[in-house]
Design a protein that fits this description.
alpha+beta; eight-stranded antiparallel sheet; two-stranded antiparallel ribbon
Length: 308
């Protein structure tokens, strides 16, 4: 069995000048030339990237003939909030493929947006945050005449194309495949390999890669949602690309190729803001000091801070 290494303390919760809790994990940042700028924990730690590498799947589909306007292309990279613009966008992609939502094979889910979830409490495949990705895979099937019903099989041409694109960008061979929460195949890769793949995607002169990254930068609200961290940072800092994944995975890059990737061992989301702000600072982006606040009664008595 492959185990998650101990790592190092990446973030701390401080209450009244005392470290009350710690978040352990692995972090790596790359220079523009791909060399390691900074790391904590083990950059070679094998991880499941979860949704953080959807842009690479989107690249594989574009390479195999999928032609989508940037707004919809960004949605294929998304872990969306389930708002109307996201669900309707997925329906648009399916319609272009000559399909409807019955073709989706992702697990059912509620919108990630609280208000949308209250208004639509019944889980559906369309509302689930990965429906854009699945619609994109189905678009690839339609364009190439590949089987639709079996698009989640690991040996299906969609998944093989995704694997090849990932191996090419990361410089690693995939040796282990799992099943993601949405039901799609999930490829094990090192944290360093993930960072290298995102860097390569960012600096690539390949029009395929350029179109995917630029779509996400142009339509960041399609990649997540108006109130979500990755969308906010991409809107606030033009040129930044950022994508989260379940179990506390995050990747980010800037146009010259400087990139970072991290994995928090406990999978918790609490330290993501502090770690992302610290990571962006390493990439030359001053994202502010809006750290997660720790309260004692009605007063702020501390914060969650990165250790670097």
């Amino acid at each position: 069995m492959i185990s998650l290494g101990i790592g190092e303390v990446l973030a701390e919760l401080v209450r009244n000048d005392v470290v009350e809790s710690q978040h352990v994990g692995h972090f790596v940042a790359l220079n523009s030339d791909g060399s390691i700028l900074f790391s904590k924990g083990d950059p070679d730690q094998l991880i499941y990237p979860r949704s953080s590498y959807k842009s690479i799947l989107a690249s594989a589909m574009v390479r195999n003939g999928s032609a989508l306007e940037p707004r919809l292309l960004a949605l294929t990279c998304a872990s969306h909030s389930g708002l109307s613009m996201h669900q309707n966008g997925a329906l648009e992609i399916l319609a272009l493929a000559g399909l409807d939502q019955d073709a989706l094979r992702n697990v059912k889910g509620k919108p990630l947006d609280d208000a949308a979830a209250l208004a639509n409490p019944e889980p559906t495949r369309l509302a689930m945050n990965c429906s854009g990705k699945h619609a994109g895979m189905l678009m690839g099937c339609a364009v190439n005449g590949w089987p639709v019903e079996s698009y989640l099989d690991v040996e299906h041409p969609v998944q093989v194309a995704f694997k090849h694109e990932l191996e090419s960008l990361s410089g690693e061979k995939i040796s282990h495949t799992a099943i993601d929460g949405c039901g799609a195949p999930l490829f094990l890769i090192s944290l360093l390999g993930l960072a290298r793949a995102i860097r390569a995607l960012t600096v690539s002169t390949d029009p395929v890669h350029q179109s995917v990254v630029q779509a996400c930068r142009t339509f960041p609200e399609m990649v997540a949602g108006p109130d979500r961290m990755s969308t906010i940072f991409m809107k606030r800092f033009p040129g930044v690309f950022m994508k989260s994944g379940a179990e506390s995975i995050m990747v980010a890059s800037v146009p010259d190729g400087r990139s970072f990737a991290y994995k928090v061992n406990d999978g918790g989301l609490r330290p993501r803001l502090a770690l992302s702000i610290a990571g962006l600072k390493l990439l030359g982006i001053e994202a502010g000091d809006e750290l997660e606040k720790v309260y004692g009664g009605d007063e702020i008595v501390g914060s969650i801070r990165a250790t670097f």
